[in-house]
Amino acid sequence: MKTILILTTALTGVGFAANAQEVNVVSWGGAYEVSQVEAYNKPFTAETGIKVNMIAADNPSTPLKAQVEANNVTGDVFDIEVSDAIRLCDEGALMEIDPAMLPPAPDGTPASEDFVEGALLDCAVANIVWGTVISYNTTKFEGEAPSTAADFFDTEKFPGKRGLPKNPKRTLYLALIADGVPAAEIYDVLGTEEGIDRAFDKLDTIKSDVVWWEAGAQPVQLLADGEVSMTTVYNGRIFDAMVAENQPFDVIWDGQYMDLDMFVIPKDAPNPEAAMEYLKFATDTQRLADQAKYISYGPSRKSSAALVGLYQDGKTEMAPHMPTNPENMKNAVLDNPEFWADHDAELTERFNSWLASS
Predict the structure, then answer these.
(1) What are the domain boundaries of the chain?
(2) CATH of range 6-129+260-307; options 3.40.50.2000, 3.40.50.2300, 3.40.190.10, 3.90.550.10
(3) Considering only the top CATH level, what class is 132-259+327-356?
(4) Which residues lie closer than 8 Å to 138 by C-beta, 6 or more apart?
(5) Is the pLDDT of residue 7 over 60?
(6) Is pTM, for the whole model, over 0.85?
(7) What is the DSSP pairing of strand 120-121 with strand 210-213?
(8) Closest Cα partner for 166 from 226, 221, 220, 216?
(9) Any idea which of 15-19, 153-157, 252-256, 332-336 has the lowest mean pLDDT?
(10) How do 298-299 and 230-234 pair as beta strands?
């Protein structure tokens, strides 16, 4: 482990790791990684001289768990989902983060009051609010276009293959939404045997038409290649394809699954002080607003909202593409990490068994 000196800096008023010449950040790749490089990494390096090494993973919690179990942690900052952050914190694998250490809003509002609900945990700080949405290829449908979660399951009216992630968390809820369950009741219904059966019965109706995906880049590629006519997809990925690449896709916000991404630092990180300075820098008001110039994920700080403007093309208004846009939240399902902490194992077992059955 490197010896790290703490010197005063304008970043926090306390100091940064002057002798740590690099920090390793493990994130999700793709357009999301580009947004982090532009909004966080480049200005962080410019201010501190610390190089940021980006490492892409299909799910950064996977290498984090593996490194912790092997007692060989090489990453300093990991960008992971809420449920993983809670579990790893409970297991003692992560550094605790005091909200008082985080920079206040520009008007002096403490960080503890400036982040959206659920964004500050004992060992994690959220950077974005994101959604899993439905997208379709507009060239596949003549006349009426699909507009609801129910349409996703209607392969007679809207023919073609469907793309779904190979996990229960982002498939079972959608089946229930399509079957008429209001978003506010999803977890109540999914917490019962009858509700679970109902979700799988709905999935049965399209099972033979599903192409399963596991990495974030796959559903966009499936649409582009014409392998599916509709798929669920991370909203930032599909925005990038639609706006930056001019792909003929559109988004259905009905039944979007909203979640947060959290920055965490493992206890045995090789450069913990530099990692903490990176985390503080990347989650201040301006940096989170800056990220929205590059991808359509909502900033986790309330004070960032007013600073969100145009996409990097200088003409696309970002607000309508944000998961947090009120219009897009009318039937949104918010992630419930407590529910998944209690039910993930049993639902994953049931889901895998269902996948394997004919």
Answers:
(1) 6-129+260-307, 132-259+327-356
(2) 3.40.190.10
(3) alpha beta
(4) 145, 248, 249, 250
(5) no
(6) no
(7) unpaired
(8) 216
(9) 15-19
(10) unpaired
Burial class (CB in 10 A: 0-12, 13-18, 19+), 13: exposed
Residue type at 354 in one-letter notation: W
- Which among 339, 342, 350, 354 has a CA at the least distance from the CA of 193? 350
Closest-CA residue to 171 (of 138, 126, 132, 218) = 132
pLDDT in tens, 71-113: 999 999 999 999 899 999 999 999 999 999 999 999 999 999 9
Count other Cβ atoms within 10 Å, centred on residue 11. 17
Beta carbons within 10 angstroms of residue 304's beta carbon: 25
> How far is the C-alpha of 26 from the C-alpha of 58, rounded, in Å?
10
Closest CA to 85 of 95, 70, 98: 95
